[in-house]
Acetyl-CoA carboxylase alpha subunit (Pseudomonas fulva), 122 residues
Amino acid sequence: MFEPGHFHRSNSVANGDVPTYAIDLHYDIRQDAAEGPMLQMSLKGEIDGAVFEESFELHRDTAFNFASVVSRLAHKHGLPTSVVLISHEHEEFDQMFEDIRHRLDAHSGDPVDLDHLEKDGL
């Protein structure tokens, strides 16, 4: 489920190697005096009964790698790698991508500062 600033994905019935989970991703934009616009994300949830919480930020020009970071963190907390939370194949991904693009006033073809890739751990 997607609404601007919030993405939710859950599985209420364990099935084979896929445990139960409920994960919420909240995001907003923060203006940093030195770095400019930053995408702030907070990932909270429960995977197979284990509660977790993670927060991270991405620079404006690297923000569109958010799905990779979210997946890596969910897998770190026990979600099997066979489960894809956010994918370009999901309609919610397109909606979220466009919402983030609008909030950041980002445009296709904007340059990427390669130093931001390293700073953002990408």
About this structure: The chain has a mean pLDDT of 92. The first strand starts at residue 2 and ends at 3.
